[in-house]
Amino acid sequence: MLARTWSATLIGIDAIRVGVEIDISGGLPGMVVVGLPDAAVQEARERVKAALRNSGFPFPMRKIVMNLTPADLRKEGPSFDLPMAVGILAASDQVAAVGLEELLFLGELSLDGSLRPVAGVLPIAAAAQSLGLRGLVVPADNAREAAVVPGLTVYGFKHLSEVADFLNHPTHYLPVQVDALEELAKTSSMLDLRDVKGQVQARRALEIAAAGGHNLIFSGPPGSGKTMLARRLPSILPPLQFEEALEVTQIHSVAGLLKDRGTLVNIRPFRSPHHSASGPSLVGGGSFPKPGEISLAHRGVLFLDELTEFKRDVLEFLRQPLEDGYVTITRTRQSVEFPAQFTLVASTNPCPCGYYGDPVQPCTCTPRHREQYWARLSGPLMDRIDLQVVVSRLKPEEITQTRPGEDSATVRDRVQQARAIAHQRFAQESGLQCNADMQSRHLKQWCALDDTCRSLIEGAVRKLGLSARATDRILKVARTIADLAAADLLETHHVAEAIQYRTIDRMQ
What we know:
Layout: E1 2-11, E2 14-25, E3 30-34, H1 39-42, H2 44-54, E4 63-69, H3 81-91, E5 103-105, E6 108-109, E7 115-116, H4 121-130, E8 135-139, H5 140-146, E9 153-157, H6 160-168, H7 180-185, H8 200-212, E10 216-219, H9 226-230, H10 242-254, E11 270-271, H11 279-283, E12 284-285, E13 290-291, H12 293-296, E14 301-304, H13 312-316, H14 319-324, E15 326-330, E16 335-339, E17 343-348, H15 367-374, H16 379-383, E18 387-390, H17 396-400, H18 408-425, H19 440-446, H20 451-464, H21 468-484, H22 492-500
Parallel strand pairs: 3-4, 5-8, 8-9, 10-17, 10-18, 11-14, 14-17
Antiparallel strand pairs: 1-2, 2-4, 6-7, 12-13, 15-16
């Protein structure tokens, strides 16, 4: 007796369909799983056997061979429990096999037959829809997550016996319905920029970063508001579009972070790893690669507080993703690519004691200590940070002021207007989301300089020792400043303002 069901496995955030073939034949009773299963898949034999028995189904006391195809693809995780159990039921004529190959099954089985949720359901649901399968059968806790994919019929069940009854009487069950656009439109409370007192230049830099997708670093003494400012960046970013939200949610689904987060990630991610984080935790890794912090921050913000406390070799992992917008993790058997288009925001003190340049608290560091402190940040990394802002101590009258600052909604409106101008400019260019994504060929077209602006740039390069990359990033920032002013051409004051955001001296 032979039966086949469909399941899937993940390579990065891409889903690969896996066939689960069940053959029940004569011979000594036993169950064998072939097709490069990992330990969790091998252990499924005992879970499936106990779940079938405890759900009231007789377990065939014959030789059972389970083949997971394609045979040269490594399979991992407990999500194959349900398709294995359904395959055994179909091969032993305990459920109807009609239409079985039009469905894809996912789910972990408890010993009593109840279904437990699994990670990575959303990208698998998207793959099932693109393959033209009729529907997806998943644990009830995963059903709303999978139902976000348009055009896919999703059924959610809590117990193996319900799945068996569904296969025998499919018309008795209704699919799970989710209005994805309604989920996306749900509002979530965020920190508001109105809470920030003073810091006019830092607020302006934050607005520019949001409008153009530029990387940003704040340097200033303790208590000046660096972290407070950074945590409010998501509140002025444009809302996620449906395609972006689906992409972000898929990454979080693969990472197993959706169990308590509903169906769609409807706000831009904000990730803030501790400075003790390792390189693999930032970029992703593992025997079966999983997304790291930079991928979890995709389409959002990666905030590195106390940047100079991170290990230098860990920070160097960021250089390639900041430039390319993705990270590639290579293992012996496979190479996995994770998206990583994020806005980097960092904060740091100006010196080890934190008070270099402060008008109130004297600095106790020697020039050598300050030099060693800033040497933890490499030149190539700092080149990739477009906006470098010194945040000063608040004045007494600023601390005690009661009038709130400009709120996030007002700033977000200006940011969206600037981004709309950029989107119109990029209409014929694929892959460009904001000004920070522009390449050198785009700068020649959209960041043309007159003689005065060119002279200003050349003077900055000579005086500040800027690299070609840093110069290009000044032009991108100037383009964003012009967009915020709704100006078609770059003017002298746009370029001058962009240059002033490159003033942090790494050798303080």
